Amino acid sequence: MTYKIYKDVLFSIMGFSKSFYPKEFSALLYLSENIIEEIYFLPLTVSNENSAVLRLDMSPMIFSLKGSVHSHPSGYGGPSRADLHFFLGKDVNIIAYHPFGVEDYKAYNQKGEPIFLEVILRKRNKK
Ligand SMILES: [Zn+2]
């Protein structure tokens, strides 16, 4: 399956990554079928220079939150050992890396293998 992400969601990811810098930004991703629709911030997320801790028990929508995103202020887009553990059970995992330009990200499946993300435009609401 090819996963898709709305361009505005990708822009938001880069915006959050920049505003959290030099700290790490971390959130879950809400998927509708194979499309990444929204960023979901968990309550009580703890962030410091080295890690961001998600309180998965605080999530009311856990079953639709099949993706994750976090930033690498280091500028390296590869997953760490801890990342690989965290990816398990999530269909798509994005790492945004410094300097957080629109193409400064990588996506991985739950095994930590690189996957392609198709960037699409959100359809306007019909009136
Ligand atoms: Zn990481």
Helix and strand topology:
Blueprint: E1 3-6, H1 7-20, E2 26-32, E3 35-40, E4 46-47, E5 52-53, E6 67-72, H2 81-87, E7 92-97, E8 105-108, E9 114-115, E10 117-120
Parallel strand pairs: 1-3, 1-10, 6-7
Antiparallel strand pairs: 2-3, 2-6, 4-5, 7-8, 8-9
This protein binds zinc ion.
What is this entry, summarized?
With 127 residues, the chain is an alpha/beta fold. The chain has one domain (3-41, 62-120): 3-Layer(aba) Sandwich (Cytidine Deaminase, domain 2).
Descriptive account of the structure:
The structure is a single chain. The protein is α/β, with parallel strands linked by helices and 127 residues long. It has a single domain (3-41, 62-120), classed as Cytidine Deaminase, domain 2, CATH 3.40.140. 17% of the residues lie in helices and 34% in strands. An 8-stranded mixed sheet has the order 9-8-7-6-2-3-1-10, covered by helices on one side. The chain starts with a strand and ends in a 7-residue tail after the last strand. The model has no long low-confidence stretch (mean pLDDT 87). The structure holds zinc ion. Zinc ion binds next to β6.
